Amino acid sequence: MQKSKIDVILGIQWGDEGKGKIVDVLAPRYDIIARFQGGPNAGHTIKFGNTTHVLHTIPSGIFHEGKVNVIGNGVLIDARIFCQETAALRQAGIEACKRMKISDKAHLILPTHRLLDAALEARKGAKKIGSTVKGIGPAYTDKTARCGLRMGDIFHPGFEKKYNALKEEHLLQLKQYGFDIDAAAIDGMPWREYEDKWMQGIEELRGFEVISTEFYLDRAMREGKKILAEGAQGSLLDVDFGSYPFVTSSSTTASGVCVGLGVPPSAIGRVYGIFKAYCTRVGSGPFPTELNNETGEELRKKGHEFGATTGRARRTGWLDLPALRYTLMINGVTDLIMMKADVMDGFESVQVAESYRLDGKQVDGYPDTEAAERVEPVYVQMPGWRKPISSARTYDSLPQEFKSYVEYIVRNTGLDIKMISVGPDREETIVNA
User: Is the pTM of this model over 0.70?
Assistant: First the structure.
């Protein structure tokens, strides 16, 4: 039997595109939903009925009975945060351990990773990256330095010894930074107390099915199972191809699926690129179409643009086609999905950046970080759609001004928009538009 392919869900802007909702919408089509990178720095919001759920580490297919959710080797796990998620799911009637498998090669975020993250961010001063301070960077640093702890380690007799050795190394680094360890807190509690909660989480994690998920996924593909890979953050935050150094610490692009799940490039099928009808960004770094005006504030308020993980206000701006075309190229996107189109209801006119100019000359492609800070967007202005679109369930029922906006994007990207979200609920979605 020919092996099945793995389809991929990616954010193709600066994150916060709405990946969680779309994974939830698409999950009924798949047997397995597999998260391949990132950690609790992600915040995937899912709304159905009158309930809103925010997931940070657990794959967004967890709400569908009969689906297997996989946390791949490329993901980072904070035992405390993970078990807070499972507790919230339990209150919703879902036992995560019955629907999930975790890679034995997934790395752990230690409490001292989080202290290091805070110390390193503070040392940057005005050059702060805008870290979520969830320990992501330091944990990936230990991974590449070959001294990190992995999920498989928690079952070994020497786990506590290895944990203490790595913790002491972190504390030594913090002392060298002049960090006040005794006064340090994590999520509002003294860090030693957080450490106790973290250790309780490790005990709970021992009750999950921890396996070599690369073998499990290979077998599933051979059996013809349908698999959806779920990414976190966005392609413009990729550690290699994003606006470095204002990026995350993992590969957020389609290539990250291979190393984050242990599958070959030939296994990749469709690549769904998710983007907002406008743009947002959290933290520092270039944002060519940013709107520091009333329009930007209106987008922020109507779109509830505040981080699901940090609560920070997001920067807002018009849709950026040069950036979008760049991420389509590096990911090999096959299908587009537009999110939050309803947020732009009521604008008399809308704009799209179709190109950039730098020092009076047109810029080809997406520039490096230094140039991206200085480019001037060249905008196209279009009529806005004045009536609400959240009740629309077919493409034909959408206002002509909105359809013109969609068709302009299709012409300028060469890709069809297969799905349009017109509201936060899973039902507020137009499929096969």
Answer: yes
